[in-house]
Amino acid sequence: MEADALHDLTAAYALDALDSEDARAYEAHLARCERCRAELAELSDAAGALAFGTEAPVPPPELRARILQEAARERPNVVPLRPRWVKPVAAIAAVAACAAIGLGIWAASLSSKLDRSEASLARQERVAQIVGQPGSRTISFARGTLVVAPNGEAALVLRNLEPPGDGRTYEAWISAEGAPEPAGLFEGGAAVAIPLDRPVPEGATVMVTREPAGRRKSPSSQPFAIVRNAAQS
Amino acid sequence: MSETARPVARSFAHLSDEAVVALLARSDESALAELYDRFGRVAYGLALRILRDEKLAEDAVQEGFLTVWRNADRFMPERAKASTWLLTLIHRRAVDLVRREDRRRAEPLSDSIEPESSDSAEDDAWLRFERERVQSALKQLPDQQREALELAYYGGFSQTELAERLGQPVGTIKSRMFTGLARLRELLAEPGSGEAAWKPTPYTT
């Protein structure tokens, strides 16, 4: 089927109104077509809303029990949990804290299968700690959010960061007075949350650059993300 | 045991659907229970509307929730709402089953289902409110668009089958579905349509 014809199938796909052959062709197309992915996301929300348009009789109570039982039975096959040392309650608190300040994306990425190393979990715990401090402020900017605790400890949350490329890394910098100082290295991801290595004073600027791998003393390229810890009004 | 279970359970109330799915990805069964308590009724109502058979509807709902359970770590909240994801899975399963069983009927089911009430007046009110909101948006669509959406979504008919049934070219059906769905989306997003009222923890980024 031609690409144009495939674009046209988005609504039918969202409604599950394609025959299986067309559905497969559309899915293959979807993998390559950003426009259709965006359109499908919108139309799927509308289709999903239709579910609420029906009568909703109470399902038999055994259904709930059966689903939970079956889930528990399958559980050993599920991806390993976080290491023991991360307490579940701490995890819930972190997710709740992030959800509360609108970092929903990162809250969800806490569970990313791809990133369960101890180092990354330690980093997540650290971010959760900063985010969870009473009086922490969030400053949104084009690429994400800066969270600053009252004592200046800060975390940076970035969205949709492409992988930095071979032999390269992202580096955060803090510029208070004078030259920017290095504040942490990190990789890309759909949602990246990193604790910064040094406090961010009021009025200071946080920047992110793409650098050759390895820690550097000063940025070698133009920052692509800049956010200022503006004084509280 | 119950010392930790209690505060944890309570903390769900503040979480967005997306955050609940994030917890679910950590194999947290209480998160699955929470998701079921939020959407189990809607899911079952949808599956029953399509399948018109209680056992089959239960199968579709169970399969949908377990698919979420197994794949929660692949869920990308920047791509979709958690409720959309869940309901899409259940819808797809129900449509697969109805096509296989060929049990489809186009007539609305409202008359034959007892609008039962649960033990939660709050749930009942919320579901009634949601149903009215979606129904009133549907009523604002031109008849042909509404018909295409209802037959496809609730009836489980494919676009080819719809074209035959309605005696129209497939292209016409496609465009009715597209225009209808896009318009429905606008209508539901309009202020006053109540979206904000039923989302206690709006998902924002």
Describe, in plain words, how this protein is organized in 3D.
The complex is a heterodimer of chains A (233) and B (205). Chain A is α+β, with helices and mostly antiparallel strands and 233 residues long. Chain A has 8 helices and 8 strands. Chain A has helices at 3-7, 10-14, 20-32, 34-50, 61-74, 88-100, 104-109, 118-132, and strands at 137-141, 144-148, 154-161, 168-175, 181-186, 189-195, 205-212, 225-228. In chain A, strands 1-2-3-6 form a 4-stranded antiparallel beta sheet. A 4-stranded antiparallel beta sheet of chain A has the order 5-4-7-8, with no helix packed on it. The longest helix of chain A has 17 residues, at 34-50. The termini of chain A are far apart. By secondary structure, chain B is mainly alpha-helical. Chain B has 2 domains: 13-103, RNA polymerase sigma factor, region 2, helix turn helix motif (Rna Polymerase Sigma Factor, Chain: A), CATH 1.10.1740; 120-200, Winged helix-like DNA-binding domain superfamily/Winged helix DNA-binding domain (Arc Repressor Mutant, subunit A, Orthogonal Bundle), CATH 1.10.10. Helix content of chain B is 69%, strand content 0%. Chain B is globular, with a radius of gyration of 18 Å. The relative contact order of chain B is 0.10. Residues 1-10 and 194-205 of chain B have low confidence and may be disordered. Chains A and B meet through helix 2, helix 4, helix 5, helix 6 and helix 7 of A and helix 1, helix 2, helix 3, helix 4 and helix 5 of B.
